Task: structure prediction
Amino acid sequence: MSDTLGSRIHKLRLEKGYSLSELADKADVAKSYLSNVERNIQSNPSIQFIEKIADALQVSIHTVLYGTPVEAEEPALDGEWFRLVQEAMASGISKREFKEFLDYQKWRMEQKDH
Result:
């Protein structure tokens, strides 16, 4: 299989041990569309599709697009951080509210240093 977006998704799916149906369900995409992407019949999926696949595979979008993680820029999210983020999402907090909280925490830490 050549190094295409479809072949990378296929490889990542197999590495995670997911069947085509399992990944389609986890990503909330059509199984037939996912199959077409993996087989390079559909070679230009939307960024939303790629985001859903990356989330379901728990890898970065960069990994899906290029096959290699960006380790220096994007450290892996360990299980505890992943659960905390899921808990924040389940609580209904918006991305904006979460970002504001992080900004506030950074500000507090800077105030302690002065």
Summary: The longest helix spans residues 95-113.
